[in-house]
Amino acid sequence: MIQRGIEPDLFIYSSLIRGLCNSSQWKESTTLLNEMIKRNIPPDVVTFSTLVDVFCKKGMLSEAQIIVDMMIQRGLKPNVVTYNSLIDGYCLQSQMDEARRVFDAMVSKGCIPDVLSYNILIKGYCMSGRIDEASQLFDEMPQNGLIPNLITHTTLIRGLCHTGRPHAAEELFSKMSSHGCPPDIITYSTLLDGFCKQGHLDEALALFQSMKKSQSKPNNVIYNILIGGMCKAGRLKDAEELISCLSVEGF
């Protein structure tokens, strides 16, 4: 383009950087960013945020922070997309205190977290076994004008199950419809798996029966979870009945 006398603009540079990032060519994308600056084509928030996101996904958090600092030095304010990428990056590396620091910094600088911000942090806490902090964030959402969505509920239910609290997960599950987001098949499978792994097989069967009456009909994954749980507990008759149902359903 340049050899033909066509000067690339912000849109072209940003598109090229996004394409390079999508192809995991982060070094080339950084080179292009520096070229933009040298050619007096100021990158915007979207351009910087694209780079922050790719660095975070690659675990290159120091490089991501450098990009954020560069944004601020150039008079640009990171937006919720930028902060969400940073929070997610720290969560992926199990650096939950740093993730929370970024979340709090976002709030203190007047950038309002969205549902995705909370979902990312809740998932990070759940993956790190810090379920009480995840639950606290969940409870904070309505206070801040945000409604937990299906992903929020399912993530916390999974976290409660993984930390040996399936009945707390069941309580949250029972409130989902009243919260405006009825459980889907992933939510059902998550709670069923939690019940089976904790040995609460009667509760698992009861949930299975209620699922059959819901809009989320059992699939082969649901049957496999239940059959595996019954076999592991030595309840072979229940397993055989489930296998018979599986055949009738055509799986």
From TrEMBL:
Keywords: Repeat. GO terms for biological process: chloroplast-nucleus signaling pathway; mitochondria-nucleus signaling pathway. GO terms for cellular component: chloroplast. Gene3D superfamilies: Tetratricopeptide repeat domain (1.25.40.10). PPR repeats lie at residues 9-43, 44-78, 79-113, 114-148, 149-183, 184-218, 219-251. The keyword tRNA-binding does not apply. The keyword Repeat applies. Belongs to the PPR family. P subfamily. This is Pentatricopeptide repeat-containing protein. It comes from Jatropha curcas.
